[in-house]
């Protein structure tokens, strides 16, 4: 948790844009939850032989929802991409200044590829995590919660079954993370070795 707090320091100067982007992603999630609801209304209207104007209104509402979702997605994606680039530039500048201040003995003990990998691949991964994963966490939780609430309204027993499976999915994700983490570290080491060899 301490490492995350340290990383969030780099996102602090961009908190306004990140908050706006998170809000837009939140709106996108809310609109996205309205699409299956409108789809259900459309199916119900067709099955009961609803009038053409009623079906037309529902289709128009669905079109409006898709347009709103696309707009929110485009704007939030643009803001996130721009902010990610700024965070990565800040990280690289800070890292470069730090590397310049280190003694020569540090470079004698480490492969040059490790240092170059820090300036290229690793910094990009950290920047993307800060601007994308952290910002998208709340909208994802809202989408999941909204989906469960909608399922409860439609069929409560299936909704509770799905909700009961969430801890199992979390456990599987934790297990997969423990398996993938050493592979990720090995991948970073191999990339550093390739850069050092080059």
Describe the structure.
The protein is an all-alpha fold. The chain has one domain (2-197): ABC transporter type 1, transmembrane domain (ABC transporter transmembrane region fold), CATH 1.20.1560. The chain contains six helices and no strands. The longest helix has 50 residues, at 52-101. The radius of gyration is 23 Å and the shape is elongated. The model has no long low-confidence stretch (mean pLDDT 80).
Characteristics of this structure?
93% helix, ABC transporter transmembrane region fold, 198 residues, mainly alpha
Percent of residues in beta strands: under 5%
Q: Count the helices. How many?
A: 6
Q: Main beta sheet: strand number and arrangement?
A: none
CA distance, first residue to last residue? 36 Å
CATH superfamily: ABC transporter type 1, transmembrane domain
Number of strands: 0
Low-confidence stretches: none
**Under the CATH scheme, which architecture would be assigned?**
Up-down Bundle
> What is the percent of helical residues?
over 70%
CATH topology: ABC transporter transmembrane region fold
Q: Which radius of gyration do the C-alpha atoms yield?
A: 23 Å
Order of helices and strands: HHHHHH
